[in-house]
Amino acid sequence: MTRCIQCTRCVRFASEVAGVQDLGMLGRGSGEEIGTYVEKLMTSELSGNVIDICPVGALTSKPFAFKARNWELKGTETIDVTDAVGSNIRIDSRGLEVMRIIPRLNEDINEEWISDKTRFCYDGLKRQRLNDPMIRGPDGRFKSVSWRDALAIVAEVALQVKPEEIVGVAGRLSDAESMIALKDFLNRMGSNNVWCEGNGVRPNADLRSGYLLNSSISGLEKADVFLLVGTQPRIEAPMVNARIHKTVRANHAEVGYIGPPTDFNYNCKNLGTGPQTLLEIAEGRHPFCSALLAAKNPAIIVGAGLFERKDKDSILSVVNSIAKLGNVVRPDWNGLNFLLLHAAQAASLDLGLVPESDNSIESAKFLYLMGADDVELDELPSDAFVVYQGHHGDRSVYRANVILPASAFSEKEGTYENTEGCSQQTLPAVPTVGDARDDWKIIRALSEVAGVCLPYDNLSGIRSRISVVAPNLLRVDEREPALIHTDLKPDCQQKLSTEPFSSAVDNFYMTDSITRASKIMAQCSASLLSKK
Amino acid sequence: MCARLATKRFLEIRQILLQSPQPSRSLSTALNYHIDSPDNSPDTPWEFSAGNKGRVKEILSHYPSNYKQSAIIPLLDLAQQQHGGWLPVSAMNAVAKVVQVAPIRIYEVATFYSMFNRTKVGKYHLLVCGTTPCMIRGSREIEEALLKHLGVKRNEVTKDGLFSVGEMECMGCCVNAPMITVADYSKGSEGYTYNYYEDITPKRVVEIVEMLRRGEAPPVGTQNPKRIRSGPEGGNTTLLSEPKPPPCRDLDA
């Protein structure tokens, strides 16, 4: 603390932006110190931002300290993929290594902050990486092979099985280019069982308003009442939560929450835990209705965790009736929002990655996992052939028969659409490891070996293909709002279950293959989550 | 020659300055952070006593309901009186709950003001004024006499838990310097007194301590029998006549 000049920017950041009252100014005069008085950690998911706002460098990034000099670093302006917000970041690299990640200003998305997961997950990019194409031998061990051999084996198996037994799953970190390539490839093989994890069965991909944050992230500041349905923005999308916190502080917006007990860093009424409460509000029996009706710009935020529920359609129709009751969707204000969980989700729904069959995994004989590590593989037949294409040796690798190494988000050019429908592109900051290739290139090569060659050879070719399916993905850095609203949906007769909402994210610090491979994230989960 | 003498003298002065021990400038009785101990931990329950709950309500009524935090200082003072002259961290947490702010906001206030003691003090907390007029009139000797008589260091409590000595900055009675304050926590917040003993001498201060030990109440104010309050010793030497009324023209004329 010898450099500290007691400017109290960190104290003010903690209480005004992060919403945790942990830091304070202790003592006075020459004995003044910044501290917590009692021994505790600053339990905020935005705590890393104090590094950026400290004017003298008294607060520094522990993983970055003494690792590199500023002038040695090459900055690459790119975007973050650890959640669905798509925070604008700069990846600072030295040679082959990502040295640190810092935020870039984007007033519409992340303002000038990023979450701790975004900032500190980069050491995961150096661990558990898949270097070479590998095939599991009869003894159950992986053996490195050449790309030619690996692709030949995959194509051979894919051509042997029936088309409807081919299933493809895109992971939560996939970019739009690779997802359209995967879908095109599987369609050419005769299968349409392709989806992106996290979207649940039979996702609503018809109307963009049914899966986007329609008010936009910065638009949430206009809201005066929030109803959070089965979503915990603090751990699902800290930047959206920071926006809600800002709104609550600025105009004393009221926040109601339906879901399991959780921490909020602003005043929030816990209305209930399950769909019953939702029904009560829809029928006007709940005391929160009066707040909703009195509001000028009410905002409902539905968590994407609900997409995985069996009674999803009926929950959404109840939410729709609440929206109608509270006049939430108007020509001048659309307050019916869906908060997605993963970077790939919005683009995958835009591109129509919707499986034909509800339980394709159970009958799959050829499963193509493109970075998908959170798919339930228990139901998968034991004789199914699993191809894992990805950058980390994570959960799905244990079941894979063939591994195809791909590049991570920091090593490729890819298009991602964030939860509010703004498409953004990543740029390669560092070269990829080993023999890994970009996701879409692997699929393009595989399609040629399998005899169903995809008609694009370069990024502009694949982007012109995207422009046919979802032209909005190519309008980079521009938010494309949904035009038609959910009124068109037919009423649903599905039964509402009484099961309470569950939390979509168990561990904020470990949500995908990169963060699960990160040592810093493991330390964070060990020291921060055990306290709760 | 001259230069050599000057250098020698300079070195001597420097030596003296280096040798003189830096007096501790820590005015508050504790560190800027909390260390758990058996009698001071956030887990020990702490509440305002039944009698003080009414006073808490009364204090809060002085401030608008949306500015409850204005009551932090009076409430901390009340908590300190109730807890025998010092504030454990659990008492600060209790105040935080009453005024509905985060505990750190209370810690900030409590660490700022040296009058809030965050470590144990004696039932009689003796504060010696250390500011210039008192210092010139011998406050250092007073403190020395106190510490020697009680056998403690500054901010230490005597073994019987009765006394502790601290330093305080200007108490505003410089005309009666030197002086000490006795904060009496022996009778809880109901019988709490805070008295000045002025014009003291090293001998008199020991007498005062002994009187307090016996449970007697030494006369407050100046200890010089020849003075009345802050008046001159031996009575007035000037302004002896009845004061004349202010000049005013005759309105009836």
From TrEMBL, chain A:
It comes from the Eukaryota. Keywords: 2Fe-2S, 4Fe-4S, Electron transport, Iron, Iron-sulfur, Membrane, Metal-binding, Mitochondrion, Mitochondrion inner membrane, NAD, Oxidoreductase, Respiratory chain, Transit peptide, Translocase, Transport, Ubiquinone. InterPro entries: Mopterin_OxRdtase, Mopterin_OxRdtase_4Fe-4S_dom, NADH_UbQ_OxRdtase_75kDa_su_CS, NADH_UbQ_OxRdtase_ferredoxin, NDUFS1-like_C, Prok_molybdopt-oxidoreductase. Residues 73-129 form the 4Fe-4S Mo/W bis-MGD-type domain. Its EC number is 7.1.1.2. Its cofactor is [2Fe-2S] cluster; [4Fe-4S] cluster. The keyword Mitochondrion applies. GO terms for cellular component: mitochondrial inner membrane. PANTHER family: NADH-UBIQUINONE OXIDOREDUCTASE 75 KDA SUBUNIT, MITOCHONDRIAL, RESPIRATORY NITRATE REDUCTASE. This is NADH:ubiquinone reductase (H(+)-translocating). It comes from Stephania yunnanensis.
UniProtKB/TrEMBL annotation, chain B:
Its cofactor is [2Fe-2S] cluster. CDD domains: TRX_Fd_NuoE. The keyword rRNA-binding does not apply. [2Fe-2S] cluster binds at C129, C134, C170, C174. It comes from the Eukaryota. GO terms for cellular component: mitochondrion. Binds 1 [2Fe-2S] cluster. GO terms for molecular function: 2 iron, 2 sulfur cluster binding; metal ion binding; NADH dehydrogenase activity. Keywords: 2Fe-2S, Iron, Iron-sulfur, Metal-binding. PROSITE patterns: COMPLEX1_24K. Residues 216-253 are annotated as: Disordered. GO terms for biological process: mitochondrial electron transport, NADH to ubiquinone. PANTHER family: NADH DEHYDROGENASE [UBIQUINONE] FLAVOPROTEIN 2, MITOCHONDRIAL (PTHR10371:SF3), NADH DEHYDROGENASE UBIQUINONE FLAVOPROTEIN 2, MITOCHONDRIAL (PTHR10371). Belongs to the complex I 24 kDa subunit family. This is NADH dehydrogenase [ubiquinone] flavoprotein 2, mitochondrial.
